Amino acid sequence: MSAMIRYKPLITVVRKSVPLGILWNFPKDYQQRKDYTRTKQWTKRQQQAFIDSVLRQSYSPPIVIRELNTPPSEFSPNKHTFEVIDGWQRVQALNNFRNCKFQLPQSLKDCSLFADRVPIVVLGTIDTAFGYYMDLPIELCDFCRESIKLEVDIIKRIDDPNNPKHEQLATKVFQHLHQENNTK
């Protein structure tokens, strides 16, 4: 009789569809680690292009975050905060849009995009008030905050920021996601 091998994975990944309103809790719930940051930041045009794809609900790769077990603080009264492993510029673009750092892209002038999502009366005001997030009708802001969702992969089981092994595994996840494909 063969011995049963028990395998316990080092990490667990849970995929969730997360509404924009939750992702907008930055920086309260989301941390950035310098190891994961690219030196080149997205331009305004790149951020607008991402917002265009989010509002059109096109494909966007999942944001990868690491759940950290941290003591409650004034910024995070919960037991958990999150470290963005992949997708920091996407989270930043979402928050820059929400905080009116740039206007909606001109490509979204097509009001039919939202025709089946918000009352037609609201759509009539978009053309004249098109611009920053705060200029949008409240119904459209509510729709963005509550109904538009992005996929988020939550990495669990490496949640101790003071444990060197957990830090190494988190770094390996980042490196794996960003490795160059050198096969020719």
Question: Summary?
Answer:
With 184 residues, the protein is an alpha/beta fold. The protein has six helices and five strands, in the order E-H-E-H-E-E-H-H-H-E-H.
Structural class per helix/strand content? Answer: alpha/beta
Distance between the termini: 46 Å
| Count of helical regions | 6
Shape: elongated
Report on the structure:
By secondary structure, the chain is α/β, with parallel strands linked by helices. It has a domain at 12-101 and 149-171: Conserved hypothetical protein from pyrococcus furiosus pfu- 392566-001, ParB domain (Alpha-Beta Complex). Helix content is 33%, strand content 18%. It contains six helices and five strands. The chain has helices at residues 20-23, 44-55, 88-98, 120-129, 138-147, 164-177, and strands at 12-19, 30-32, 63-69, 80-86, 149-156. It has a five-stranded mixed β-sheet with strand order 1-5-3-4-2. Helix 2 (44-55) crosses helix 3. The longest helix is centred in the last third of the chain and has 14 residues, at 164-177. The protein is elongated, with a radius of gyration of 19 Å. The N and C termini lie far apart (46 Å). Residues 119-129 have low confidence and may be disordered.
